[in-house]
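User: Show me a protein chain along with its predicted structure.
Assistant: Here is one chain, sequence first, then structure tokens.
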Amino acid sequence: MKKLIVSISLVIASLGGYAQESLTYQKPSKEILELVDVPRRPSLRIDDKNETLIFLGRDGYKSIKDLSKKELRLGGLRIDPKTNISSRVTYFTSITIKKIKENKEIKVTGLPSSPRIANLRWSPDYSMFAFTHTTETGVELWVGDIASAKARKLTEPVLNANIGGAFTWFKDGKSLLVRCLAENRKPLIDTETAIPSGPIVSVSDGVKAQNRTYQDLLKTPNDEFNFQQLATSELKKVSLNGSMTTWAEADMYRGMSFSPDGEYVMLTKIKKPFSYLVTFYRFPSETVIYTKDGDLVKVINEVPLDEVRPKGFMATRKGKRGINWRGDKGATLYWAEALDQGDPAIKVPFRDEVFELEAPFNGKPKTLVKTINRFSSIEWTNDKKIAFAYDYWWNTRNTKTYQFNPENSNQKPIVFSDRNYQDRYSDPGSFATAKNSFGREVVQVERGKVYLIGSGYTKKGKFPFVDTYALKSKKTKRIYQSAYTDKVEDIFFAVDLKKNLFLTSLESKSEIPNYYFKNIKSNKLTPITDFKNPFKSIQNVHKEVIKYKRADGLELSGTLYLPVGYDKTKKEKMPMILWAYPEEYKDKKSASQSTSNSNTFTYPYYGSMIYWVTKGYVVLDDASFPIIGEGDKEPNDSFRKQLVDNAKAAIDAVDNLGYIDRNRVAVGGHSYGAFMTANLLSHSNLFAAGIARSGAYNRTLTPFGFQSEERNYWEAPEVYYKMSPFMHADKMKTPLLLIHGKADNNSGTYPLQSERYFNALKGLGATTRLVMLPKESHGYSAKESILHMLWEQEQWLDKYVKNKK
């Protein structure tokens, strides 16, 4: 009997145990490493007059030391409790000013040593800028002057940046409204060592609360206490000479914004009770209007705890939502309210009604417009009788744009655009805007016309355009369309409509994107930046967008890269990596469209497979993986079949070109792409190996929907079962590399997903390897982690794909 017990124990240990490796952080081979360790392009800010640029320099990566600092995960936030700012913020390290006309760059002086800059904002007149600097003990407020190119500190490290930006400018530009640490803030509880005062009890009162599987939620009364301390701020008025006065008493401020005329401030405050089911955005809240001097005007809205909503992606809560300032008036609020009680199952002619309320906010709200779908946003114009409202409906992928008269709600709105938002070829573009006298971006109406800037995706490629639209005749006229065939142009915004001047960028396979002022009438280009290509070793690699058909005739595409130095005339059979991410559609027309362009700059970001062209691999990147469910059918009802059909079509297409050995093809993806990878390896024999990063593999652990699936597990158990690779782990016969961040914060992709899936695969004898990256979230940021991830992928691909026996 004793021998039997020992034997059973050994069997259990062999099924559940991990074969651990004692491994330090590794680096990939030289060819890959030299593409990773390159300087990054600076981030840009441009002033309203389009005369001055600010370049914000940054390091390419964080360090594992940065990620190893103490972090509290509360209510959907990740906070550094020592410095009181997000523990995951990406910092800038330098500021450079460029006068565009002078073509002159000046480094800003006076910055702190080893700057950690964030939250940069222009002053209202663009003569200055403010930003935060994070020290070892907290967050300071700094300002910089454009004329002198000098920066100076305004406050000690007393800012509270735990919930978004910590400051905003007053309208006069002479002072700032700043969230500061509360003077009466109590010490935080160390939840790891605190002695519990009792059990944690959750209660359901019979009302359905079908929420997604959020991470970083509050879990205990100690968490609640810590969240309140970290969310509480005092509002201070800080002048440019550094003087500081209390503007509002301590509270849990979630948001603050000045009215366009600067006379009022709208504050949103978090209230109790807190929730263990949803993030802080759905905690109770109160929206209050104050004067610019801090005097209470009116409580505009009170929102109860938002744990329970009707079923469906288009469900919302009752009451006012999305309260904002009209950009074309001095101090007028607008918001939306659901006419269907927030329940998409209730059939009504209009889903939402939009209201406005003028200062001093004592009158009766006035109706502005009603929307057929769920209201999204409004763009105001420089004509108070014209505005544009947007709505959308996820289930049909429909979006509408309404032209309406804010001065007369009895005037029937005109449906300006009614389209499938996944149909990129029919996108009419975005309205050209400019700053008005309040400093707000509004649509420009010029002589009865508006301008539209479009991406210009077509079956033949990307050709951005500028159209005019006559509001009375409803006629569209194209006044510019890009004609580049060897480059890619992007049009960002209008600099001066009267002068036909726009901000654009140009790039090619080997030319990194640079910015220009372009006169679309004369085609004259004025250079603004001169960034250089840091990826010289792959600048001449062959790159093309290939198009091919799925078994059902659906046209697909992918961006094909051939190895460095590959001779196309010899057609040597090389190993291939296929990298993809599935996307759901409601119609075949949209699913067949391609936005890939072979002339875009070849840019290998940290998670890219493009690195492997230096190692003798063909790479098919961003391969089309549409999952379609037309009419009453849902895409996921045939998920697995469509997945395999997409993969086979891709491999067949490249194989038919003669470039690859189809027995040496790897597949991979990140997040939902990892989920795709595991399914492909379980239900096809198309691949030699797979790489799955930060995925979810057991859909019963996300029972109230995932990705674009809004049915819950109990409504569609077969779908959840069939789509879960975990349930089919016994079918896995292909080597699979699993990589996951230990601190993944994405809804549904808990690290547990990879751990349990690996355990199942190992127990069933599959060839697999699990790499858990310490401190990393859903995306990876520490240089050590990224280099090690690339090393792991390189070893795996070389062993099971390139050198497959």
